[in-house]
Structure formats: structure tokens, C-alpha cells
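Input (structure):
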């Protein structure tokens, strides 16, 4: 009788019912990364005089709270020193939080670092996880053994990464001889060999040319779509965010400043893109439709600013129809300027 009454309850399953417990379990399972009031404080000593040192505390992360669902691709951005790397180091278990609660796949990273290592992949920008003096393929073979990856799965993952990241000609090259862009591609492949459930990427397209960037972005999109890999991406290239992430979080001074869609970030910071136009000859400032405006003119080159939340297509088409063009390009706003404008808006409010 109790089961029937529960099923007919118009208010739906409550937290104390079997259905409510199941719904809560499903919601918890869907949340792959969870931070609740997380803090990280460092003790810093600096010299203030002869044989004198001053001790002070630096709060790198200050009451950070957010969740990331399984399979979600999230951009995690902010200026240098904002606390991004500190957050990722706590998520991987390298650093222990000074306060708050942190879980990845239900695991406390600092307490069960080895257990968590089999479920995560990490690419730390300028710091490689590859063996410096060994050929690239030897690093992959070592990871094959370290993570105890089944042979068939290892070969399948390696072949796929080598093909999509164009690593075939680099496999026998020592890592120290690779360019930054080549090594970044090698590091991304290394992070994916053991089928991680979550991937932390720090500037994954740094040092790559336009074609290579497109390939890496396509690879990451396919990875998320096919395998449901959760991705937390830190970058200074807003095009990485635009093409990969449906959600962006902005952190500054260890605090979460914004959490939402990229369009909303542009609106909050009133950021602008810049259209750089090269004309065949020097002309008066281009007459552009509002809200675009000319902000700089140097000979045949002109710079036009327009809202970052708007498409450049209409502006480009209008200029191309009326002016003799040689070349043009669109420059994205940098993260620092967007955040600076967000601060200015809040201070004035």
C-alpha cells in the first residue's frame, strides 16, 4: 500500500522515499567534479631587513564553489595568478586544500591520489609529462605499463591519437628535440592513452599553428562526444572556449567571478572584438554601421571595434562591398581586459 501511495503522490518523490533516494543518487552520479567553499592558503616569508623575515599568508583560492557534470566541457579562465593552476593541482591531488570540500568522481584527491590518477588525464602547459631524453614512443610504452592499459585498448588509443594529432613522424624523436607545438600534441596523446574520465588541459593549443589548432579542437570535441570525457580547459585563447565549451567560469584572486555562457561573459564585461582592415590605398575612416566604430587609422590599415557578442559576418560583408580590400582579420578580446571591465562595472554599481 505504501508503494502505491508513493507512486500516486502528486508532489513527486520526496527525499525520504526510495524514488527520491534514487533521484538524488542519479544527480550525485551526474556531478563529476564538486567544490564547496574550497580554500588554499600559502605561508610566504620575505626578507624585510638584516636577519629579519616577515611572514604573511597568501590566499590563492578563496571560498571556491562549483560543480561540473559528467561529460561537460568547461572553460576555466582568468588572468595570470588568479588561482587556476592552484585549483587544478588540488583537483589532481598535488595540493591539499586548506579548507572546504573537494571531490572528483566521489574521491578526495589529496587522500586517494593514486586511485584517482587512473581516472584523470592532465596536460600542464609548459610542463611535460613525457620523458625528456627518450623518443616519444618510449614514453607511451612506459605509460602503457604504468597504467596497466590492456594491450588492445592501448594500440587502439595510440593509433587514434597518432593519426588525429599527426604524430607519426615524431614517434622516434627524443622529446627534447620537439618544438613546443609538437610536444603539446604529444602530451595530449599521453594524457588520453588510459581512457581518463576527466581531462585537465592547461593551454592545449599554445605554440600551435592555425591548422594544428583546428585539429586539436576537433579531436577534443570528438573525444567529449564519443566517450563522454569531462574536460576542464584553462586558456588565454578565447577561440578555444568559443569552439569547445558551452560553459565558462572566470576566476580572479581565487574567487569565482562568473559562471555561465561565453556570450554572457562578453555582455557582463562589455568586451569588444577588433576588425583589422587592410585597404588597397589610404582612405578616410571607414563608415561602419553602429555599434562598430573606427578606433585607429595608420595609412591603408584601419582598426574597427565592435561588440564581441555580435557576429563579424555582417560588418565584413558591408565593408567588402564598399571598400577596396587587400586583407582583413578579427582579433579577440583578451581575458584580462574582459575581467577589468567586469570589475569596473561592479565598482560603479
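Output (sequence):
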Amino acid at each position: 500500500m505504501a508503494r502505491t501511495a508513493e507512486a500516486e503522490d502528486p508532489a513527486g518523490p520526496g527525499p525520504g522515499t526510495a524514488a527520491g533516494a534514487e533521484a538524488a543518487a542519479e544527480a550525485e552520479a551526474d556531478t563529476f567534479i564538486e567544490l564547496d567553499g574550497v580554500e588554499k592558503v600559502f605561508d610566504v616569508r620575505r626578507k624585510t631587513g638584516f636577519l629579519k623575515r616577515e611572514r604573511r599568508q597568501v590566499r590563492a583560492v578563496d571560498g571556491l564553489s562549483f560543480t561540473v557534470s559528467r561529460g561537460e566541457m568547461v572553460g576555466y579562465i582568468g588572468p595570470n595568478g588568479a588561482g587556476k593552476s592552484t585549483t587544478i593541482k588540488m583537483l589532481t591531488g598535488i595540493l591539499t586544500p586548506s579548507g572546504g570540500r573537494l571531490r572528483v568522481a566521489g574521491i578526495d584527491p589529496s587522500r586517494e591520489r593514486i586511485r584517482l590518477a587512473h581516472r584523470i588525464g592532465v596536460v600542464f602547459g609548459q610542463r611535460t609529462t613525457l620523458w625528456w631524453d627518450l623518443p616519444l614512443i618510449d614514453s607511451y610504452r612506459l605509460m602503457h605499463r604504468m597504467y596497466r592499459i590492456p594491450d588492445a585498448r592501448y594500440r587502439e588509443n595510440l593509433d587514434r591519437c597518432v593519426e588525429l594529432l599527426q604524430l607519426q613522424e615524431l614517434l622516434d624523436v627524443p622529446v627534447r628535440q620537439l618544438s613546443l607545438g609538437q610536444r603539446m600534441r604529444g602530451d595530449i596523446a599521453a594524457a588520453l592513452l588510459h581512457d581518463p574520465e576527466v581531462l585537465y588541459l592547461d593551454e592545449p593549443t599554445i605554440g600551435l599553428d592555425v591548422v594544428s589548432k583546428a585539429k586539436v579542437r576537433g579531436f577534443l570535441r570528438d573525444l567529449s562526444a564519443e566517450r563522454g570525457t569531462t574536460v576542464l580547459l584553462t586558456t588565454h585563447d578565447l577561440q578555444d572556449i568559443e569552439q569547445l565549451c558551452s560553459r565558462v567560469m572566470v576566476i580572479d584572486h581565487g574567487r569565482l567571478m562568473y559562471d555561465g555562457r561565453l556570450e554572457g561573459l562578453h555582455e557582463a564585461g562589455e568586451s569588444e572584438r577588433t576588425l583589422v582592415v587592410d585597404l588597397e590605398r589610404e582612405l578616410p575612416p571607414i563608415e561602419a554601421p553602429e555599434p562598430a566604430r573606427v578606433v585607429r587609422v595608420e595609412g591603408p590599415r584601419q582598426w574597427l571595434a565592435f561588440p564581441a557578442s555580435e557576429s563579424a559576418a555582417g560588418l565584413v560583408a558591408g565593408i567588402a562591398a564598399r571598400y577596396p580590400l587587400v586583407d582583413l582579420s578579427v582579433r579577440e578580446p583578451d581575458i584580462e581586459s574582459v575581467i577589468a571591465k567586469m570589475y569596473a562595472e561592479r565598482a560603479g554599481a
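Notes: Residues 272-332 form one domain. The chain has two domains: 33-41+57-265, 272-332.
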